[in-house]
Design goal:
There is one protein chain. With 254 residues, the chain is α/β, with parallel strands linked by helices. Bound molecules: zinc ion. The site of zinc ion has 6 residues, from loops.
Length: 254
């Protein structure tokens, strides 16, 4: 049976979009997840929402217990995880307010538990296609139907944070081929793959990072404003895409 996990990032900590919603406290061998699960239904499909930074956005990226979050959704029976993430744009064409469906990541994190296989067990998880191709396609097609501007096949670089990039770093990430930048996709995506969960992310562009000389350097206040409008778009996208995931018998084979 299909069950959808949603990991709400900044701006989507507690979206009000479930029918018959109730809170479910869970624990895992890795500790408590960032929040209780909000479980309910969208279009008849079972959905569980987890707030990546806790309800009220209190957990900074480096302190998110990514293993507990993915373990909690996996133990709850989630077959698919849809993640939202606020990102900075490293490309002119990805304007604030646009949605991006990443296809690749670059890992620039430094101090996170990034695997479930850190005991005496050698497991090398393939990561050539980290995001579920079937989910990516459904996201992109549905965004187009809704008239939302959505960029596909992009690369996200995840940095440790909590500080934003220097200009030198921002230029470097552009040269490395990254299109958007955030602090949360890695190791979340990796851990989901280890649990054999179909995982895809919808990134919400909030600003131009600091490489764009004509824009004022990004501040948290600016980001929050754009984020509110973005959250609306992502909720619309989720409400439309989730029933389709249930209908598409095999989203993909991986
Ligand atoms: Zn898949």
């Amino acid at each position: 049976m299909i069950k959808i996990g949603i990991i709400g990032g900044s701006g989507l900590d507690n979206p009000d979009m479930l029918k018959d919603a109730r809170l479910l406290s869970v624990d895992t061998p890795y500790g408590a997840p960032s929040s209780a699960l909000t479980v309910g239904r969208i279009g008849g499909v079972e959905v569980a929402i987890l707030a990546r930074h806790g309800h009220g956005h209190v957990i900074p990226p480096s302190n998110v217990n990514f293993r507990a979050n993915i373990a909690a959704l996996s133990a709850h029976g989630c077959t698919h995880v849809l993640a939202t993430t606020a990102v900075g744009s490293l490309r002119m064409e990805i304007a604030p307010g646009h949605l991006v469906i990443p296809a690749q990541f670059i890992d620039w994190t430094r101090k996170r538990a990034c695997t479930f296989y850190d005991g005496n067990q050698v497991v090398h998880t393939p990561m050539a296609e980290p995001f579920c191709p079937g989910l990516r396609q459904l996201f992109a097609a549905t965004a187009r139907e809704l008239g939302l501007t959505c960029h596909e096949d992009k690369t996200v670089v995840t940095i440790e944070g909590p500080r934003f990039s220097t200009k030198a770093e921002s230029y470097m990430f552009r040269q490395l081929g990254a299109d958007i930048i955030n602090m949360s996709t890695v190791p979340e995506c990796v851990l989901a793959r280890e649990k054999k969960i179909h995982y895809a992310a919808v990134a919400m562009s909030t600003d131009y990072d600091c490489w764009h000389e004509e824009e004022a350097p990004v501040t948290w206040e600016m980001i929050k404003q754009t984020m509110t409008a973005n959250a609306d778009r992502v909720v619309r996208l989720f409400l439309a895409v989730i029933p389709k995931i249930a209908l598409a018998k095999d989203v993909c084979n991986s």
